[in-house]
Design goal:
With about 400 residues, the protein is α/β, with parallel strands linked by helices. It is built from 13 helices and 15 strands. Helices cover about 40% and strands about 15% of the residues.
């Protein structure tokens, strides 16, 4: 029987909550388990009262009860971060001899302090996975002057305390260096998990439409899309818009639609089922995501799997642009202004079936190399933990900072 036991610490678990981090850490748990290792997923309760969900490949360990993660403005609540960190600390103190290693999410940053303090002097190795790393200005814009400055200071301290760091973009690796990290950084080659089950739709729906899929929060700048589509409609008069999701910025999105008289050509169905999402994504002429901040950019991968080109915005905090090869799987706009974003939409839509084929081809190449499988192999190699069962997977480790961009 295998003896190696790995813990993964994150306050959310997919599919009880959704998002890039939730999908990533669940994938980590599944892939590590398939190597014959025992995995405990240390999380907050997100299910009805009673027993934790019985997963087939890993153990779910609730370390704290239900949390209200975000406030009305979409900002993560400090109280929730403190409660989870406290629960994580107590659990790890009780289990300090149970784990060979723990993978801790660096967001919220209090997780790092809880794990390091609880496991001090134990044999458990700590890996901190950084979905994003922010500078002081980003923190103060997100959480306000006082709270943001404190959060930035805690982040810098946590970065310095991190023994093994992993991240998912060259942008985050550079930010780790900027915030004081001096050891080797494991930069994952990508976060693709499995082959695409989607058939390529050679031609988009007629009339064509642009789609946005995700939460409505200030950093996503969803409210910039209606004016951009209105600008694009000067060239493509039958272009429509489908805005999926909702959130604190939804009233701003609705106001932006009204400001350009966009109700006749805009649909806002909110969150939809996976089947509906796949259908809308596959038939869209373009996926538009004007986000100013992304730690990886899973939306690029998901759109390319459908053969749908993407339009992103060039921004210093947007690591998703690292995944876009202009003219191959999308277009990067110079800014989120109506003219820049609108012109990029026109370019993507006019490129038609050729860009759709090349976007799908980009994905089919990426799915062989930019995978969660390889990221897990890199972490286990760094920890010197060998799989107990053969996987047939690509055994090359995750890339260094100087790896593919």
């Amino acid at each position: 029987m295998p003896t190696d036991r790995i813990a993964i610490a994150y306050d959310c678990l997919f599919p009880h909550t959704t998002g890039g981090g939730e999908r990533l850490y669940r994938s980590y748990a599944e892939h590590i388990s398939r190597r014959g290792l025992t995995v405990d997923y240390l999380t907050a309760q997100q299910w009805p009262d009673g027993r934790a969900p019985q997963e087939s490949e890993f153990h779910v360990v609730p370390v704290v009860g239900r949390l209200r993660l975000y406030d009305e403005a979409g900002v993560r609540r400090t109280a929730a971060a403190l409660r989870y960190a406290g629960g994580l600390f107590r659990t790890l103190v009780r289990r300090r001899r149970s784990y060979d290693a723990i993978i801790v999410s660096g967001l919220p940053v209090l997780n790092v302090f809880a794990a390091r303090a609880a496991l001090l002097g134990s044999r458990t190795r700590v890996v901190v996975d950084y979905l994003e790393v922010w500078g002081r200005r980003q923190w103060t814009e997100y959480a306000g002057g006082a709270v943001g400055t404190i959060a930035w200071g805690l982040q810098r301290l946590a970065v310095v305390m991190t023994p093994v760091a992993t991240c998912h973009s060259q942008l985050t690796a550079k930010q780790l260096r900027r915030e004081g990290f001096r050891r080797s950084i494991l930069v994952s080659p990508g976060l693709i998990d499995g082959e695409s089950p989607h058939a390529l739709v050679a031609e988009p729906a007629s009339p064509p439409y642009a789609v946005y899929a995700g939460r409505h929060i200030p950093d996503k700048r969803v409210e910039a899309i209606p004016a951009a589509v209105a600008h694009a409609r000067r060239t493509l008069p039958d272009l429509g818009l489908v805005v999926l999701g909702s959130g604190p910025s939804t009233p701003d999105v609705e106001a932006a639609v009204a400001a350009v008289d966009g109700d006749p050509w805009t649909q806002r169905p909110g969150f939809v089922s996976q089947v509906e999402l796949d259908d809308l994504m596959s038939n869209a002429a373009v996926l538009v995501n004007p986000s100013r901040r992304e730690g990886y950019g899973l939306v690029v991968v998901e759109a390319s799997a459908h053969g749908t080109p993407v339009v992103l915005v060039d921004d210093p905090g947007n690591a998703a642009t690292e995944l876009v090869e202009p003219g191959v799987n999308g277009v990067v706009a110079a800014s989120a202004s109506a003219s820049d974003l609108g012109d990029a939409i026109v370019q993507a839509v006019r490129s038609g079936s050729q860009l759709r084929r090349s976007a799908r081809s980009w994905y089919e190449t990426a799915v062989q190399t930019r995978t969660v499988e390889r990221a897990v192999e890199g972490i286990l190699a760094e920890l010197e933990i060998a799989p107990h069962t053969p996987t047939g997977a690509d055994k090359r480790p995750a890339d260094s900072e100087e790896g593919p961009k």
